[in-house]
């Protein structure tokens, strides 16, 4: 337990993993931390759950990425040229696999395989220890000048001399190599189902990607190459590309629509994260551990009255990395600071504050390349409610727009109010209210619509922003917390009967006003539940304050009830103005709530003017 509840083992096969293993999809797309690399590593494993055929993993480093980005061929656009260099990498990997695989798996080495061995040797590709960047450099030189193709019976200087351009000559050379690989697969009958296909995977492209056109071209070239090679090699080779969602979604090219059928996007539900937590915890403690024990013995049953698992997964983005970090942080708070192996509600809350700070920083880092201005949008949401309307956000953005445009002139087109909303929604920072639900990116493919006006900061970021209340309503300041009922008078809540005097009648009317406003909030069924709860919470504080005044003894304990009603009526008026100014959609019923507050405020002011007679009458 002390090594961390969820640090080891416990891979959970999800839909993305099953789709990758089955070969039905080629593109595995997910956010950072969503488990792309975990799927890749599981497929590479030799044990249960791993791919049982040959496996090759390509992970470009910066040097390799630079080699691809700067690769050009006269007569070809950038995407097509970079597709050729990727195709060359795939062909060489397949050829090297076949040279070893032929004898080991088939016990024979037909002429087509021998030709591949000669080609690899003649072009400096035979050494298994070569780095990817070396292979790319070798291939780039060959495609830009001439490869040695004698192994396939082709004399480059003679047979390719008539090529009209450098690009056409490179494409023709590559076709010769690919035909040689295809012939060897056919001679060995590798696509006949006698054994699993060769699995060729590409991962970690985000390490070499930037938002520059050459980087996008590098990724587009990869997609085009994989599509071509998958069709060429048929059932002999299976391709899997693991791509970060923001990179893939930023691409724009003519053949992009052809890849929709190859896409598999990783999505994590709360149920899947619960299963992951149990599997990881079970693997870590080395004993049988079911879900009930995890959430009742190791963790507290509830946090703030909410089921602990629901609370935890609501406060992290729906991806394994975040869930594991949060749960481990809870465990560390219990063990490192208190030497306990069980976790308390206080541990969870303390971990949540630190976790929120981590995630807010991580969000800026994750999207630093695509959206370098993200961290500068943070003040728009600092120390305010986590429910924000388009109207309120427009006011805040207008005050910051000039500075943002000055600091990030290259992103001026994105730094508009609709642009900022779209970006913050796409990265998971903001959710949009649709009907009675708040939807975040990944829950719904529909982008933010122009008519949508209410947005919610994700619970993951609220503590770090100081946005822990749903709405930026002025909190009611309790006035009578220290009132002592030293004379033994009954509480007005429990005394019942007819009010003793004018003060009691006024306080009864104040409690009636609180009840009337709360009832109006309850009738506003389209009002966001957390906004409605915040309004009722503040009104409840007013009512509770009034209930602290003992029946028949307001003056005896030093309470000026007339002044109190005037103060409270002013508070109701302030709340009404804030609600009207909030920009919340009128169809939610918020204006009806505001009008009820104003009506009750006027009524209380009239009552405080003496409609019940003197305060001493009974």
How do the strands line up in the largest sheet?
Answer: 2-3-4-1-5
Helix content: 40-55%
The count of β-strands is 11
Q: Runs with pLDDT <50, length 5+? A: 1-8, 611-618
Number of H/I helices: 23
Class by helix and strand content? alpha/beta
Rounded mean pLDDT score = 87
The dominant shape is elongated
| Strand coverage percent | 5-15%
Give the biggest sheet: 5 strands, parallel
Task: Report on this structure.
By secondary structure, the protein is α/β, with parallel strands linked by helices. 53% of the residues lie in helices and 7% in strands. The longest helix is centred in the N-terminal third of the chain and has 29 residues. The radius of gyration is 33 Å and the shape is elongated. The N terminus and C terminus are likely disordered.
Walk me through the topology:
Layout lengths: L14 H8 L4 E4 L5 H9 L10 E4 L3 H8 L8 H29 L4 H12 L9 H13 L11 H4 L6 H23 L9 E5 L10 H21 L3 E8 H6 L12 E3 L4 H16 L5 H8 L3 E2 L2 E2 H7 L5 H19 L6 H22 L20 E3 H18 L9 H10 L3 E5 L2 E3 L14 E4 L1 H7 L26 H4 L6 H22 L5 H19 L13 H21 L8 H19 L10
Parallel strand pairs: 1-4, 1-5, 2-3, 3-4
Antiparallel strand pairs: 6-7, 8-11, 9-10, 9-11
Helix pairs in contact: 3-6, 4-5, 4-6, 4-8, 4-9, 5-8, 14-15, 15-18, 20-21, 20-23, 22-23
Give a short synopsis of this structure.
With 618 residues, the chain is of the alpha/beta class.
Structural descriptors:
618 residues; 5-stranded parallel β-sheet; disordered N terminus; disordered C terminus
């Amino acid at each position: 337990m002390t090594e961390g509840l969820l640090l080891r083992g416990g891979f959970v096969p999800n839909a993305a993993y099953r789709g990758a293993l089955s070969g039905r999809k080629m593109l595995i797309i997910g956010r950072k931390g969503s488990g792309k690399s975990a799927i890749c590593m599981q497929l590479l494993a030799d044990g249960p759950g791993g791919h049982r055929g040959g496996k090759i993993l390509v992970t470009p480093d910066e040097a390799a990425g630079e080699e691809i980005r700067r690769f050009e061929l006269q007569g070809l656009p950038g995407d097509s040229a970079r597709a050729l260099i990727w195709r060359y990498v795939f062909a060489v990997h397949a050829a090297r696999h076949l040279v070893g695989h032929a004898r080991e798996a088939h016990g024979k080495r037909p002429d087509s395989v021998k030709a591949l061995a000669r080609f690899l040797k003649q072009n400096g590709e035979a050494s298994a220890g070569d780095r990817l960047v070396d292979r790319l450099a070798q291939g780039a030189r060959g495609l830009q000048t001439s490869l040695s193709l004698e192994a396939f019976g082709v004399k480059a200087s003679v047979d390719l001399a008539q090529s009209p351009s450098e690009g056409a000559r490179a494409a023709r050379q590559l076709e010769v190599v690919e035909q040689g690989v295809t012939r060897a697969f056919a001679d060995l009958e590798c696509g006949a189902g006698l054994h699993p296909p060769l699995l060729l995977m590409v991962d970690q492209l985000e390490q070499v990607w930037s938002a520059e056109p050459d980087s996008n071209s590098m990724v587009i070239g990869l997609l085009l190459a994989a599509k071509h090679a998958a069709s060429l090699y048929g059932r002999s080779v299976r391709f899997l590309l693991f791509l970060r969602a923001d990179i893939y979604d930023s691409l724009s090219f003519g053949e992009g629509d052809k890849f929709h059928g190859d896409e598999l996007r990783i999505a994590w539900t709360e149920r899947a994260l619960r299963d992951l937590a149990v599997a990881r915890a079970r693997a870590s403690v080395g004993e049988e551990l079911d879900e009930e024990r995890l959430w009742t013995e190791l963790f507290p049953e509830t946090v703030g009255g909410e089921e602990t698992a629901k609370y935890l997964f609501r406060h992290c983005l729906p991806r394994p990395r975040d869930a594991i970090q949060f749960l481990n942080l809870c465990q560390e708070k219990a063990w490192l600071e208190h030497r306990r192996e069980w976790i308390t509600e206080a541990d969870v809350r303390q971990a949540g504050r630190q976790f929120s700070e981590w995630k807010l920083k991580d969000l800026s880092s994750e999207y630093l390349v695509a959206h370098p201005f993200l961290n500068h949008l943070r003040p728009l949401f600092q120390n305010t409610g986590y429910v924000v309307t388009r109207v309120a956000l427009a006011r805040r953005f207008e005050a910051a727009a000039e500075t943002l445009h000055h600091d990030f002139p290259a992103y001026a087109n994105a730094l508009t109010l609709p642009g900022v909303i779209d970006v913050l929604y796409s990265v998971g920072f903001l959710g949009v209210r649709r009907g009675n639900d708040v939807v975040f990116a990944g829950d719904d493919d529909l982008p933010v619509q122009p008519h949508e006006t209410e947005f919610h900061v994700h619970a993951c970021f609220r503590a770090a922003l100081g946005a822990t209340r749903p709405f930026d309503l002025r909190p009611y300041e309790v006035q009578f917390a220290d009132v002592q009922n030293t004379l033994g008078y009954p509480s007005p809540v429990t005394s019942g009967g007819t009010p003793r005097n004018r003060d009691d009648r006024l306080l009864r009317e104040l409690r009636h006003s609180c009840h009337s406003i709360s009832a109006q909030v309850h009738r506003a069924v389209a009002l966001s539940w957390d906004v409605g709860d915040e309004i009722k919470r503040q009104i409840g504080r007013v009512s509770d304050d009034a209930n602290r005044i003992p029946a028949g003894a307001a003056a005896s304990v030093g309470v000026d009830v007339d002044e109190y009603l005037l103060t409270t009526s002013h508070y109701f008026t302030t709340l009404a103005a804030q609600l009207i100014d909030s920009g919340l959609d009128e169809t939610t019923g918020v204006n009806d709530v505001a009008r009820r507050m104003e009506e009750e405020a006027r009524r209380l002011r009239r009552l405080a003017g003496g409609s019940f007679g003197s305060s001493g009458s009974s």
